[in-house]
Structures are given as structure tokens and as C-alpha cells.
Amino acid sequence: MGCKYCFLVPIFQGTLYVIAFSTTFLLSAVINKDVPLIFPYVSDTGVWSIERCIFSFGLGLGSLLMIATIYIRCRQVKEVLELAESKNLSSKLKKLNTISLFLGMVAVIGVFMLGCFPVHPYIVPHLIGAGAAFNTGLMVLAAQTYISLKIYPTLGNKTLNIIRCVMVLILAVALCLCVIFGGLSLLLFKGDDITQWTAASGGYVFHLISVASEWILVLGVILYLSLYAGEFRSIVLHKPNMDITTA
Prior knowledge:
Blueprint: H1 8-31, H2 49-82, H3 92-116, H4 123-151, H5 158-188, H6 204-226, H7 228-232
């Protein structure tokens, strides 16, 4: 018997992340005042006290839901491309779809690393995870957006495709701003702890631009994946087959 509730996976993914990040921000910036209220990076809200546990748990579970969403989407595209009426679609789309699945795995490993290695004091592995999550993740979204445009109207709708194109462009700009101004702000930083960034720490304006861009980037990726819920309603996912061979 197949699973008819695949559409819940991207919804759970988005809901979990929003609850986790809202909780860590509320605890770290408002209640415990572990980080400045204006304006911490997403990762800064998960460094201290109980927030670290919530942040790690949220990213760990969220990464599983995220790769499940990407896997279901790639399976969906694969099935569409194999339909008899879709034989006119380019075979290159199949390769791109497969590549995007493997890139999605890399991106999710990056997300998992973000939860395992707090930015303070493990900034190097944290930044490696961020690079894998955001850079590779954006490539996955761009690839799937391109595929969505090519397989329409067999799957999807025009409005969603336009929204996805706009979102990918916004996310690309946000990523560039986050990296560029984040790097500049670090060069000007004069404090001892980057999670305690204030106007007196140096590079404050650059810091705020980078932080705002990161929040846009994070929430944008979450929203993008959540939009698959509508298209997943037509999916019935069956268990994968297994063949056992003797040596």
C-alpha cells in the first residue's frame, strides 16, 4: 500500500524550521538575552544555553524532512519524464534531476553540520556547513526551477513557476549580500565574541546587511520547499524494491 500523504512532508519541514528558529530567537534574544535583540544571525540564536539543544534538534530533524522533500520531488520528476506522453522532453533533464538529488544530499549534510557545530566556538566547521547548505542548496533550487519550467504543463502551473523563478533570483542576491557584507563586517569586527555584535563592535552596518540577507535566505529556502506541498498531493509513494543476490 502506498503513502498518499507525501504533501505533508514539505509542510512539516517548513513548520518545524519556523517553530525552531522562532523559539531560539525568543529564548536567546528576548528572554535570556544571550545575544543582542538587534540583530543576530540565525546561527547566533542557537549557541547558548537551552537554545543550542533546540537549534541542533530542529536542524537535525529538519534536515531529514528536507532531504525527504527533495527525494520525493526528484522521484516525481523522474516519473513524469518517463511517462509516454513526455518522451519529447529532453533526456538531459533526467541527468539534471539526478544531479540535483545528489547535490541535495550535500546541502542537507551542510544543514546537519550547522546544527552539530555552533558558530561559537566551532566557526570553521560551521562555515563549511553553511557553504555546503546555502551554495549547494541554491544550485538544487535553481536546477529544479529550470526543470519545472521545462516539464510544464505536464506538471505544475505557470504561476508557481514564476514565483519560483523570482524566489531563486532573490535568494541568489541574498546569498551574495550575506557573504560579501559578512566578510567585510568580520574584517572590521573589534570584539571578542561574534555572537555579541553591537554598534561598538565595528562593521555594524555591514553586519546588519549580512544578517538581514541571511534571514531572507533561510526563510526563502524553507518557503520554496514548502511550496511543493500542492504538487505532492497527486503522489502515491510506494516502498522501494529490494533485490538480494548471492555472492
